[in-house]
Amino acid sequence: RATLLLSRCLLKMVKGNIIVPEDILSFCCNGLQGSTSPRRAGEPEEREEAPGAMASPLASPSAYRNPTEVQMSQLVLPCHTNHRGELSTGQLLKWIDTAACLSAERHAGCPCVTASMDDIYFEHTISVGQVVNIRAKVNRAFNSSMEVGIQVSYEDLCSGKHCSICKAYATFVAQGPLGSKVRLEPLAPQTEEEKIEYSIAAERRRMRLVHKDTLKDLLTSSSQETEQETRDGSGAVPAGRTRVESVELVLPPHANHQGNTFGGQIMAWMENVATIAASRLCHAHPTLRAIEMFHFRGPSQVGDRLVLKAIVNNAFKNRCVPGLGDPLPTLPTALSPSSPLPGSMEVGVCAEAYGQEMSISRRHINSAFMTFVVLDQEGHPRSLPLLAPEPGDGERRYREASARKKIRLDRKYVVSCKQTEVPLSVPWDHSNKVYLSYNNVSALKMLVAKANWTLAREKEKVRMYTLEEDRFLSFRIEMSVRVAAGRAFSLLSNLRRRHEWDSHYVRADLVQKVDDDDMIYHVVSQKLRNENKPQDFVILASRRKPCSKGDPYVVAFRSVTLPTHPATAEFTRGETLCSGFCIWPESEEMSKVAYYNQAMPGYLNYVTTNVVGLSSDICSTFEACEKFLLKNKEDLISRLQDF
C-alpha cells in the first residue's frame, strides 16, 4: 500500500512539471522492486551468502570458510552432567558424533553413517555452566568414505577462558538409496592447515587398516606367559565382579532420518556401562581418560534391542607392561593427564543388537576399550585394587589389555606429539613400527604443505627454496627431469644407490626390511669440516605411492635407534629429524622432483653457505642426481628392484 501511494505522488509531480529529486526517484523505483529502504552513501552492499556457509557476527564477509565446516556450541546444563557436576563423557560423544555427521553430509550431499573413530584422549573435564565448542570439517574424501576432523574445547563464560578438551578423527561412509555406497567428490584443500590435514589423512587411513595386525604382531613377539602383578590372588578383585550387562531399546529420538541408530548414542550407552564396570572395581567414581580406536561392524535400527556388556580387562599399577618385555622408556608426553598412567584400568565393552524380544541371533555392532582413572582431590590418579582375570578368555583379555596399553603409549607419544617434542632418534621396535612410519611420512608431508617457502637461489634447472620457522631452517631443492615419476621414485628410494650421485654418502647398508614400504639403513657419510672422523646414521626410510590422483610419490627419512647398531667410537653419530623426496608426475615421461630437509645445527653453516651463493655444492649434487636418473631410467634390473 505504501508503494502504491508513493507511485501516485510521483505521477502527480511528473504531471505538474515538478522536479523530482534523484534520491526520491531511486527510492520509489527500488520500492517497486521490493526494497524497503534506499542504501545510504558509505553503506556496504548486501552480499549473497554462499551455499552452506554459516553466518557469524565475528567473521568478515570476505573471510574464507571451509564449506564442510560445522560449528556447534552447547551450554552444559545439569541434565548433561554426572554427580560431580561435570559433563558426562557419553553426552560429549553424542555431540561430537552429531557435529561430525553434519559435516560429512555437507560434503556428501546424502545421509552418512559413522564407520570408525580414532583414539580420543580427554585432557580436561567440563563443568556445568560452561560452553562446549565443537568444530568439525571434512579433511579428505576417499571413494565412499571420508575423514572428519573434530576439535573440542570449552569456554568459561564468566572468566572468558578457553581450553582444549580433545581432538578426534572420525570416518564416515556416504549411503545412497537402500544402503548403497555413494562415490564422493574429491576435496580441494585451500589453506595451509587444510593441505596438511588432507595430506596426512591418507597416512591415518593406512594406520587404521593395519591396527589389528599391530596388536597381533605384538602379542606374537612377546612372551607367551602372562606375568600378572599377583600370583597368589590375595587382595585381588575377581574380574567377574566387574561384569555389567544392560539392554537399551532403540527409539526414534536415538536414530537419524534413515532410522539408523546414531553412532554417538551407541558410544554414550557403551560409556555408561563401562563406567559402572570400572566403579565396581575401585568402589569410587572413575574418570574416562581415553577411548581406543574402534570400528562399527554394522548398523542398528529403530526397534532394535541393544545388549551392552562391559568388564574390566586389566588394572595397571606401573608403567611396566606385564609380559611384554622391559619397562617402557621415559617419554616426555607419557606423563600427560590423557595417557594411561599408573592407577589406570582398561574396560572392554561390546554392543550387540537383535530384533525381537525372544530372538537368539545377535548382531555384533561395536567393541571398544576405554581407559579410566580414579582421581584424588588434587587431580592425581589413585592406586587401584589388583585384578584377578577369569580363566580362559579372561587371561586373553588381560594380556591383550597390556599390549594395547603399550600401543597407546607408542601411538600417543609418536603420533600425537608436535614434531619439536619428539626426540630425534626414537627407539624402533615391532610394536611402534606403524607409528614411527606414520610420523616419518606425516612430518615430511607437513613440511611440504607449508606456505611460506621463499625462492633463495636458482641455477639452471635447479631451484632452491628456504623456510624459516621457529628454531628450524628448512630448505627445498626442486627440479624437473625427463623421467617418469614412478621410475624416479624407485631409484631415489633405494639408499644403497645414493652414493652414485650424492658425494656426501660413502655407503648405505640395509639393516632390516620392515615391510615393502619401510626399510632401516646404516648410512656412513663423509667427514664434516670440523670433525676428524666420518658420520654415521641409522635411518628409517618410508615410502608411499600416491593414494589418489594429484598426490606425490613420497620417500621420507628420519633417524631411529636400534640395539644392534649403537653409536661407536669409529663414527660421529648424526641424526636427521625430517628429510625426503616428493615426486609429482608432470606427464608420462616428465616429473618434478623436490628434496626437503629440516637442517640440523651441524649442517646450518653448510646450508646457509649454499643459500647465499658462496657455494654451489647442493645445486651440483642435484645436477648429479638428474644425470643419475636419466642414466638409469631404462635400467631393467633397477626397474625390477624397488629398494
UniProtKB/TrEMBL annotation:
One GO biological process term: acyl-CoA metabolic process
Database matches in InterPro entries: Cytosol_ACT, HOTDOG_ACOT, HotDog_dom_sf, START-like_dom_sf, START_lipid-bd_dom, Thioestr_dom
Superkingdom assignment: Eukaryota
Pathway assigned in UniProt: Lipid metabolism; fatty acid metabolism
Region of interest called Disordered, as start-end residue ranges on this chain: 35-63, 218-239
UniProt-listed Pfam families: 4HBT, START
START domain span: 453-611
Keyword Cytoplasm: no
PROSITE patterns: HOTDOG_ACOT (PS51770), START (PS50848)
GO cellular component, one term: cytosol
Domain HotDog ACOT-type: 66-178, 240-378
Keyword hit for Hydrolase: yes
Molecular-function GO terms, alphabetical: carboxylic ester hydrolase activity; lipid binding; long-chain fatty acyl-CoA hydrolase activity
N-terminal signal peptide: none
Membrane spanning residue stretches: none
Keyword line: Fatty acid metabolism, Hydrolase, Lipid metabolism, Repeat, Serine esterase
Catalyzed reactions: butanoyl-CoA + H2O = butanoate + CoA + H(+)
Full protein name: ACO11 thioesterase
Organism of provenance: Erithacus rubecula (European robin)
